[in-house]
Design goal:
disordered N terminus; five-stranded mixed β-sheet; 17 strands; binds gamma-amino-butanoic acid; Aspartate Aminotransferase, domain 2; 18 helices; Aspartate Aminotransferase, domain 1; about 625 residues; alpha/beta
Length: about 625
């Protein structure tokens, strides 16, 4: 019999478990051998009875927060298997022993408490297996219960963001969590334990004090959308198999063109797997527009083409150049001002220099919301230069695109309407569950012309519907995940104004944070001016460092401060914030607001926490 990491249980926990088990059974419990496994989310009680050489085992999963719907309880004795071979034999001979009745549901004062036995049931006993509706329901409700407990903890500011372990510890296996795969099936009970433990050792990215990434938060409606999407389990390449989702995509793309300021009849787009791939699309289409022969003849047909991005632009632009055979040497980095914005005069200078060298400029990638500083490039000035030199203008608004929904702040992206293509990730500022990223192209037809391969088995022109909705041949993929439904559902739930309110609040929090730091003499802002976006970059100076004069020696020490504070923060699981060096600036923290659960009190907490962890460094 597999040991799931049972622990000796505390008296209180055992009593708690017994309370939810049938009273008649709990009377007998004293005569039996008992084992309890307690995880933060469940209490597993395993009882073994040895009679005439047979071992009977009863396993109960007692959920502390039971789901509120009728599920069955079944306690079915079964002979335990000692080895994987026994287990397989037993499985073959018994079929599933789970039998359900509507009786014996134990009701607490407020909610219904459910126990069920899944230790002897397997995935093959679930639907579509015959007579398995009840078991399937029971299993899935248990999963939902595990997820609900996790969601509740996520929003509980007192719960740890993570229970940090090193990779080798996860590889070796932790108490109750064994990541190795076996040749034999595990019970549904074990799968539930695995689900619980997977979440236990993960990171709660929706926790109010998770500030580590641009994408954070846990939107419950978005989550519901993701569940539905997984249930539908279809593919976006044709209307034929994703009729509702492909039409939803068209509707959302239209909304995004309108928000950017494009006419729907002209524009085109697709949802892609992340901002980097969306940027890849922008550059791919830019090159195709200028050199359609690339599709058949490849790079040998082209001159030495070059593109431009600011030194604060996203690294995916270089990645795209490498993938597309352009080469990273042919990505020219344009200097930024002290706020991290591309300097238009530098762009112009770089374009002229490239031409003098015999290179052929074809594209400029401007950034609306840089990853570290949250800077917005001056889009009108860049558009003017692109027009003068006939260059494709791509705007990477993966991070900043959401700001277009705020009437107070949309002006920071003024000029985006002049772009030829735009990357916009609703999974960042808009808080849509990962992943959800769009590439939007101002000229209709280019995406398809560039990527179309006309696979006869998918894109038959003689289908009984408007095949314009078979969007799959516009993409560089074949199979495409449905990323649209969660965004559509969230938009329904919030309305455009709901997104706006959420985003305005992030901006207010960023200003609040900035103002506090400005008053504190042990913190120093990387930029003195008010934040333009939700990024606020800063250093923390422990008292010891304040005594060292500004210069190389102090920088060497300062470089170590943010990593040390972060490591301790992660170890204790109290908060998460990212840090990085940038150019000549040694490691500094990047605070960022995109988490709807964050309140002012969490911002205050973070400052206190950095001081607590850093004061003696
Ligand atoms: N550019 C991808 C996201 C980076 C971040 O979350 O910090």
């Amino acid at each position: 019999m597999r040991n799931h990491g049972f622990v000796k249980v505390q008296r209180e926990a055992f009593k708690e478990a017994l309370q939810v088990i049938k009273p008649s059974l709990s009377k007998q419990v004293g005569d039996l051998q008992k084992k309890l496994m307690v995880t933060p989310d469940t209490v597993h009680l395993k009882i073994e009875e040895r009679t005439n050489g047979n071992i009977f085992s009863y396993t109960f999963i007692v959920m502390p927060e039971p789901y509120n719907c009728p599920v069955k309880e079944e306690i079915t004795p079964f002979q335990t298997a000692e080895t994987p071979k026994d287990k397989e034999e037993m499985r073959k001979s018994s079929g599933h022993t789970f039998q359900s009745t509507e009786k014996n549901v134990i009701k607490g004062a407020q909610t219904e408490t459910v126990t069920t036995n899944l230790s002897n049931a397997y995935a093959s006993d679930l639907l579509p297996s015959k007579d398995s509706k009840d078991l399937t329901k029971c299993f899935l409700l248990q999963v939902v219960n595990i997820l609900l407990n996790y969601i509740k903890k996520t929003f509980d500011v007192k719960s740890k963001i993570l229970d940090f372990h090193h990779p080798h510890q996860l590889l070796e296996g932790l108490d109750g969590l064994d990541l190795e795969l076996s040749d034999h099936p595990e019970s549904l009970e074990q799968l539930l334990v695995d689900c619980t433990d997977t979440l236990k050792y993960g990171v709660k990215t929706g926790h109010p004090r998770f500030f580590n990434q641009l994408s954070s938060g846990l939107d419950v409606v978005g989550l519901a959308g993701e569940w539905l999407t997984a249930t539908a389990n279809t593919n976006m390449f044709t209307y034929e198999i994703a009729p509702v989702f492909t039409v939803m995509e068209t509707i959302l793309l239209k909304k995004m063109y309108e928000i950017i300021g494009w006419r729907e009849t002209e524009a085109d787009g697709i949802f892609a797997p992340g901002g980097s791939i969306s940027n890849l699309y922008g550059i791919l289409v830019a090159r195709y527009k200028q050199y359609p022969e690339i599709k058949r003849q490849g790079m040998t047909a082209l001159p030495c083409i070059v593109l431009f991005v600011s030194e604060q632009g996203h690294y995916s632009v270089k990645k795209a150049a490498a993938i597309l055979g352009i080469g990273t040497d042919n990505v020219i980095e344009v200097k930024c001002d002290e706020r991290g914005k591309m300097i238009p005069a530098e762009l112009e200078k770089n374009i002229l220099q490239a031409k003098t060298k015999g290179q052929t400029p074809f594209c400029v990638t401007a950034t609306a919301g840089t990853t570290v500083f949250g800077a917005f490039d001056p889009l009108h000035a860049i558009a003017d230069i692109c027009e003068t030199h006939r260059l494709w203008m791509h705007v990477d608004a993966a991070w900043g695109g959401g700001l277009l929904l705020s009437r107070n702040h949309a002006h920071k992206l003024s000029g985006i309407e002049r772009a030829n293509s735009v990357t916009w990730n609703p999974h960042k500022l808009m808080g849509v569950p990962l992943q959800c990223s769009a590439i939007l192209i101002r000229e209709k037809g280019l995406l398809e012309a560039c990527n179309q391969m006309r696979a006869g088995y998918l894109f038959q022109p003689d289908k009984p519907y408007n095949v314009d909705f078979d969007t799959g041949d516009k993409t560089i993929q074949c199979g495409r995940h449905v990323d649209i439904f969660k965004l559509w559902l969230m938009w329904k739930a919030k309305g455009t104004r709901g997104f706006e309110a959420q985003i305005n609040r992030y901006m207010e929090l960023a200003t609040y944070f900035y103002k506090i730091l400005k008053k504190k003499d042990n913190f120093k802002l990387v930029f003195d001016a008010e934040p333009e976006f939700t990024n606020v970059c800063f250093w923390y100076f422990p008292p010891r460092l304040k005594r060292i004069p500004k210069g190389f020696e102090r920088d060497q020490e300062l470089q170590k401060i943010a990593p040390k504070i972060k490591a301790q923060m992660v170890e204790e699981g109290t908060a998460m914030i990212s840090f990085q060096p940038c150019g000549d600036k040694v490691n500094f923290f990047r605070m960022v607001f995109s988490n709807p659960a964050t309140r002012q009190a969490d911002v205050d907490y973070l400052i206190d926490e950095i001081e607590r962890l850093g004061k003696d460094l």
